[in-house]
Design a protein that fits this description.
Elements (H helix, E strand, L loop, with lengths): L17 E4 L5 E7 L2 E8 L9 H13 L1 E6 L16 H15 L4 E6 L1 H12 L4 E7 L5 H7 L4 H10 L1 E4 L8 E4 H7 L15 E6 L8 H9 L5 E6 L9 H17 L9
Parallel strand pairs: 3-4, 3-5, 5-6, 6-9, 9-10
Antiparallel strand pairs: 1-2, 2-4, 7-8
């Protein structure tokens, strides 16, 4: 699972992130842009952080519209506290809920990239009254089971069971991915594609048909599992996993623009 939101050069104005301090000592790094509701919350991917291209493009989109916006780092990612190898799907979903509860007000549109698509679904299930809509970009629910464990050869599975960790070589950087047994086993408590997903808000799913990491059929299955009647799947012929090229970001903006218009928030203050 590659980083779906490769790091850029930090905040566009180079302002250090703020920190959400939790009672358990965890600190969640974030950047928050004030504006009108519904707000937009970006949820990044596996081993990604909030300084990537999609996060910054969405922040610019929100600023232009005068729309509230939030981007943040899960524990063990970016500027937040904790070690990546201690993270699990449940832990990162709890981070998302904490950010939603502590850093936003009113209805929100959650935008989840890759693993962030799984996290946004879990956050929406935990706080359905706070979520006005969902946008998935190469959403990867259940990836720890279906795209990791199910695909690993026996030798890799044996390594995970015996050692508790597997260092998976990366095609996207020099550092290997740290895959833990806890990540795989705990992820089984949050699988969503095995049954109906009781969410009724509008959902937009964008997926590249040439995605080598998360097959586009995952988004098709997700669309089928969602209880919502208003679900649209946009397939991008030739599109890869990250969908972060200028044409991809323009498409994302248009999809989000249409969803916000449907939700009745007009053109914002800056358009």
């Amino acid at each position: 699972m590659p980083p779906s939101n490769p790091p850029a050069n930090g905040s566009p104005d180079n302002i250090p992130p703020q920190m959400l301090s939790r009672p358990d000592g965890v600190t969640i790094a974030y950047h928050k842009t004030p504006g009108t509701a519904p707000g937009i919350v970006f949820l990044g991917g596996f081993m990604s952080d909030m300084t990537g291209g999609k996060a910054l493009a969405l922040e610019a989109f929100a600023r232009e519209r005068g729309q509230a916006f939030l981007r943040f780092d899960y524990q063990g990612h970016g500027a937040s506290s904790g070690r990546f190898e201690d993270g699990t799907i449940g832990l990162w979903a709890a981070d998302a809920v904490a950010a939603l509860d502590g850093l936003t007000e009113g209805p929100q549109v959650l935008v989840g990239s890759s693993m962030g698509g799984w996290i946004m679904l879990l956050a929406a299930l935990a706080r359905p009254d706070r979520v006005a809509g969902l946008v998935g970009i190469a959403a990867a629910p259940d990836f720890t089971e279906d795209l990791m464990w199910a695909r690993y050869p026996e030798a890799v599975r044996d390594t995970l069971v015996r050692d508790g960790v597997y260092r998976e070589p990366s095609d996207y950087g020099d550092e290997p991915y740290t895959i833990t047994r806890a990540l795989i086993e705990e992820g089984r408590s949050h699988l969503l594609l095995r049954a109906a997903i009781p969410l009724d808000c509008p959902v937009r799913l964008i997926h590249g048909m040439a995605d080598p990491d998360v097959p586009w059929e995952v988004s098709l299955k997700l669309a089928e599992r969602l209880s919502a009647g208003d679900v649209e799947l946009i397939l991008v012929k030739g599109g890869g996993h990250r969908l972060s090229e200028p044409v991809d970001l323009a498409r994302l903006g248009a999809v989000l623009e249409g969803l916000l218009a449907q939700l009745g928030c007009g053109q914002g203050n800056g358009r």
